[in-house]
Amino acid sequence: MAEERDQTGTSWRNLPQPEPPEPRLEDGAVLNGEAKEKPTKHESVKCNLNLLQMLKAAESRSPPQWRGRYRAEESEDGTSELVTEAPKTGTQIQFTEQKPKYNKRSANTSRHSSSGSISQLTIDSYSSVCSDSKDESSPRDKHQKTSKGFSDFCIKNMKQAEFGRREIEAAQQEMPALMVLRKRACGEKPLAGAKVVGCTHITAQTAVLIETLSVLGAQCRWAACNIFSTQNAVAAALAERGTSVFAWRGESEEDFWWCIDRCVGAETWQPNMILDDGGDLTHWIYKKHPGLFKKIVGIVEESVTGIYRLYQLSKAGKLCVPAMNVNDSVTKQKFENLYCCKESILEGLKRTTDIMFGGKQVVVCGFGEVGKGCCAALKALGAVVYVTEVDPICAVQACMDGFRVNKLSEVVRQADVVITCTGNKNVVVREHLDRMKSGCIVCNMGHCSTEIDLLSLRTAELRWERVRPKVDHVIWPDGKRIILLAEGRLLNLSCSTVPLFILSITATTQALALIELYRAPEGQYKQDVYLLPKKTGKSSPLIF
């Protein structure tokens, strides 16, 4: 057979045979008793001239900065050796044995950029610097101090104060009523001498209210009324400015009552005004510190749940001081209860479940102002909304607004979502939960966490499974799952946010109610529950 030759006439058999590849070893490994040396700065690969030509051709199609990397050198044994050089750019190539090097000058330049959109927050993000998930220790076990040495507080992480201050400053832009109230009343200090103990949601909006009360002359100590609604960064910012705050997100039940007790049980400080949301603070003072009512001038209550408890005390003759009902004020009912819930219910459900509302069958328990807002928002997105209501007037209103009014027991089996908005206890009980279909979402938009009978779900035959923050699956023995949001607590403040502008009106109403009670002549208000004077209530939105 004729011998095969290439185009130059050279026989294929006479070409040098490629050497077998050397085994690749880690640094310091030993082969046949000889230690393998560490790789040099330039890695060399033996190859023939044909391979070099192929690499040169490929290199010509590369960007300019990557050209000129390959060259051939003749080694001692007479063979061609291909040498690879690092690209000629300002970027340093990192090898595995080298420690990474950073350009300090470029980092400093980015921190002090003239662009207004680049800030320290873009370099050291909130999540990377102040993450709470890595810190599992209880704030009660820590001893923290502010930059000025103040330590009468208990929060999650003092390092978050800077970020919380930015949250508060941003909230001030959307809360003009409180800012105007500061300017109008800061000169006369209408709350001078007032010692206000508060138990509300600790968010950026509430922080603007607390600092407004301080500007008006009051001293404040604060705890959270909900274990899930506290913004830790905001609590840190309040503490940094000298406010005694005892709250953090994710408190246990024991922590919740401990924080309230720290607010009212200080040895050198006794409150003379109460600002409550839900009645827990008032209840604790009656139970543990009843002697404080000798100096307390009055109570301002925001929620319907707290108002129920105050009326019960008044009916039993146990209400020791006058109380102002902010919940039933025209500003609270017509603005926050309606419009705030109308916007925040959708965001809370979307953030936790990613649900599509179109075509879903939703049952809203209660058609007060909160229920009206929820129904309107859900109907606008295409949901089929059912209403359960015990008040005949509200039930007729729901019917005239185009909603189907039924008993909960009649529609619960077909419901995709069940929302409670009543402020009452045990609205949804175990019987209803047993009849729900698998995948039904259950949540609460009322203040109290007892609207859904959760105790009946803490049994041996039911299994709880946490699938994401604030979302639990309650699993029945047959595999049925009920999706429970925020453990039955207030959905919007536990899982999302609320409109700042609307809360500005309510917060201003609370401040005016405190001023009304504190400055009222002695004997004007008896030991009873009062509605905020209509003239005072209407002045809240007029401040704009």
UniProtKB/TrEMBL annotation:
<dbReference type="InterPro" id="IPR000043">
    <property type="entry name" value="Adenosylhomocysteinase-like"/>
</dbReference>
<feature type="domain" description="S-adenosyl-L-homocysteine hydrolase NAD binding">
    <location>
        <begin position="337"/>
        <end position="498"/>
    </location>
</feature>
<dbReference type="GO" id="GO:0033353">
    <property type="term" value="P:S-adenosylmethionine cycle"/>
</dbReference>
<feature type="compositionally biased region" description="Polar residues">
    <location>
        <begin position="105"/>
        <end position="119"/>
    </location>
</feature>
<feature type="compositionally biased region" description="Basic and acidic residues">
    <location>
        <begin position="34"/>
        <end position="45"/>
    </location>
</feature>
<protein>
    <recommendedName>
        <fullName>S-adenosyl-L-homocysteine hydrolase NAD binding domain-containing protein</fullName>
    </recommendedName>
</protein>
<keyword id="KW-0520">NAD</keyword>
<dbReference type="InterPro" id="IPR042172">
    <property type="entry name" value="Adenosylhomocyst_ase-like_sf"/>
</dbReference>
<dbReference type="GO" id="GO:0006730">
    <property type="term" value="P:one-carbon metabolic process"/>
</dbReference>
<keyword id="KW-0554">One-carbon metabolism</keyword>
<dbReference type="Pfam" id="PF00670">
    <property type="entry name" value="AdoHcyase_NAD"/>
</dbReference>
<dbReference type="Pfam" id="PF05221">
    <property type="entry name" value="AdoHcyase"/>
</dbReference>
<dbReference type="GO" id="GO:0005829">
    <property type="term" value="C:cytosol"/>
</dbReference>
<dbReference type="InterPro" id="IPR015878">
    <property type="entry name" value="Ado_hCys_hydrolase_NAD-bd"/>
</dbReference>
<dbReference type="InterPro" id="IPR036291">
    <property type="entry name" value="NAD(P)-bd_dom_sf"/>
</dbReference>
<comment type="similarity">
    <text>Belongs to the adenosylhomocysteinase family.</text>
</comment>
<feature type="region of interest" description="Disordered">
    <location>
        <begin position="1"/>
        <end position="119"/>
    </location>
</feature>
<dbReference type="InterPro" id="IPR020082">
    <property type="entry name" value="S-Ado-L-homoCys_hydrolase_CS"/>
</dbReference>
